[in-house]
Amino acid sequence: MSTPISKVTSAGSHRERIDVSVPAVSTPTGDPRSPPLPNPPRSLLPDSPIETLMIDNFDSFTWNLYQQLCMLGAKVTVLRNNELTANDFPNLHIRNLIISPGPGHPNTDSGISNEAIRYFAGRVPVLGVCMGLECIVESYGGTIEYAGEIMHGKTSPIRHDNRGCFKDVPQGIQSTRYHSLSAHRTTLPPCLAITATTAESGVIMGIRHRELTLEAVQYHPESIMSEEGDALLRNFLDLQGGTWAENPVSKVLDPTLHPFSPDVPHRAPTILDKIYAQRLKDVELAKATPGTTKEDLQTFLSMQLAPPLVSFVARLKARTPALMAEIKRASPSKGAIAMHTNAAQQALTYALAGASVISVLTEPAWFKGSLLDMRLAREAVATLTDRPAILRKDFIVDEYQICEARLWGADTILLIVAMLPPDRLRALYLFSLSLGMEPLVEVNNAEEMRTALRLGAKVIGVNNRNLHDFNVDMGTTSRLADMCAESDVVLGRRGLGW
After folding, report:
1. C-alpha span between 205 and 216 (Å, rounded)
2. Neighbours of 28 (CB within 10 A)
3. What's the domain of life for this entry (predicted)?
4. What is the DSSP letter of 221?
5. Shared-domain flag, residues 275 and 365
6. Which are the catalytic amino acids?
7. Res 37 pLDDT > 60
């Protein structure tokens, strides 16, 4: 089996496009993204020296970049990020290395890329493109997070430092962007310098190691809408050796050039940030309202006015698979979904269909829900044998909301790791337990999963949608489920309704 690609040959000023076939590499499961064999087929590793090695992070843009490099006269060998191991690096005699763009997050989706960066940096020139930049930042201890804006095929003018790969490139060139993540300025290690930013919003578009020939851009220089992409890539191909001291023509160490001021602003608030801020205001208003003060709620609980609980964990374990059904009128990403939904009627329908848990949105501004919805949903199923557990799905930021949930009929609550500082997460988790409710702790990435496991959560929900940038990765659940012990319950939620 072979995969057709487009290869461009260059001879003088004549350029010819030809179709070639590259052998497809199969894995034990037949999935090209499956983990590699312990020792990749030796046929993948050329015996002769490699001029330019590009590690492909499973992205079609890899081949656009390949085409442009070939048009500039480079001889490029492309290997996917699961076709190499670190043991192969000493046997690879390469002139330079490129880390390609790719989907997902550098922590979970870049394969061998980060290890390749750490091995070859200081030995040969290394260039990262898009995810390649993110891999470099992560490899040196920086943080990748939401850029404050989502760009897909959009252009932005950029400012740069006129050194290294940007030497002799005009200021204000248009850059084509396909990303929602970027390097976080305050976490950049001292060894990395910002080399370019968007002119309008200040998002980091380029970084460079201060001593080693290691450079990266967040945008796509190979895109037809990106200006001066040839010049940038040609500057990279002209580099040699592992340090800028070996490349005085690059002007990276030129003391006569003015320092570059990135002037990167704070990232724009995400929708999750906005909801968090609004819920804090909502809680303060409720606490200040006569009859619903914090003291009032504590009195109601001490009088045992809260309805009886059922075990959330027991309901989930009673059936395989267990179904959690949701009542939701709207969402930030979709707007209106089912504005005329009757919460009580819908809850009964779900229960009779076999739902183990009914999740009720109680956030009013973006999801058009209420505590009354949850109370009516609870009342509608209260007399059923083995009734479903009721989940208050909201943005819990204060113990007050947990008291509300208990009084209005919830059996469990949702705690979102992405929204809560670790100390607050633990405090809210323990407070919920003190009221007899085991929370559903929601995660979206490996670090959040580790936080949930350290917390001791018994029920962990994996949200396939990143709540900062709204990107959906359907592989998130399967990747994170492997991190849990057999005793943990993992709810894989598709994340398509946010």
Report:
1. 8
2. 9
3. Eukaryota
4. T
5. yes
6. 130, 220, 222
7. no
Q: Is the domain of 176 the same as that of 324?
A: no
Residue 236 belongs to domain with CATH number: 3.40.50.880
**Is 243 within a domain?**
yes
Q: Return the amino acid letter for 52.
A: T
* Shared domain check, 218 and 294: no
Q: Which two tokens stand for residue 77?
A: 């060998």
Q: Are residues 213 and 286 in the same domain?
A: no
pLDDT of residue 148: 65
Check which CATH number belongs to the domain holding 408 and give it. 3.20.20.70
Q: How does residue 1 score in pLDDT terms, banded at 50, 70 and 90? A: very low
Chain centroid to CA 170? 32
Query: Residues near 76 by Cβ (< 8 Å), separated by ≥ 6?
Result: 51, 52, 53, 54, 66, 69, 70, 98
pLDDT confidence tier of residue 18, bands split at 50, 70 and 90: very low
String of DSSP letters for 405-447: HHHTT-SEEEEEGGGS-HHHHHHHHHHHHHTT-PPEEEE-SHH
459-463/76-80 β-pairing: unpaired
Please list the alpha-helical segments (H only) found in 262-416: 271-287, 294-302, 312-317, 343-352, 371-381, 399-407
* pLDDT recorded at residue 8: 34
What confidence tens digit (pLDDT) does each residue in 107-155 have? 888 999 999 999 999 999 999 999 999 999 999 988 887 766 677 788 8
CB atoms within 10 A of CB 338: 12
Question: Do the beta carbons of residue 397 and residue 365 sit within 8 Å?
Answer: no
Q: Which long-range contacts (CB under 8 A, 24 or more apart) does 185-188 make?
A: 185/262, 185/264, 187/141, 187/142, 187/143, 188/137, 188/142
Q: How confident is the model over 269-297, as pLDDT tens digits? A: 677 878 888 999 999 999 999 999 999 99
Which residue is it, tokens 């956030």?
A: 363
Give the closest residue to 241 by CA, choosing from 71, 91, 120: 120
> What local confidence, expressed as pLDDT, does residue 366 receive?
93
Please indicate, yes or no, whether residues 151 and 13 belong to a single structural domain of this protein: yes
Q: Is residue 397 part of a domain?
A: yes
Q: Is the pLDDT of residue 373 over 70?
A: yes
Cα 282 to its chain centre, rounded Å, is 29
Separation of alpha carbons 438 and 415, rounded Å:
10
90 plus 26 within the same structural domain: yes
Radius of gyration of the chain (CA): 27
Domain that holds residue 172: 2-250
Residue 321: cis peptide before it, omega within 30 degrees of 0: yes
3-state DSSP call for residue 325? strand
Give yes or no: residues 191 and 287 share one domain. no
**pTM for the predicted model, two decimal places:** 0.52
Distance between CA atoms of residues 204 and 133, nearest Å: 10
Pairing of strands 459-463, 489-493: parallel
Lowest-confidence range among 29-38, 217-226, 295-304?
29-38
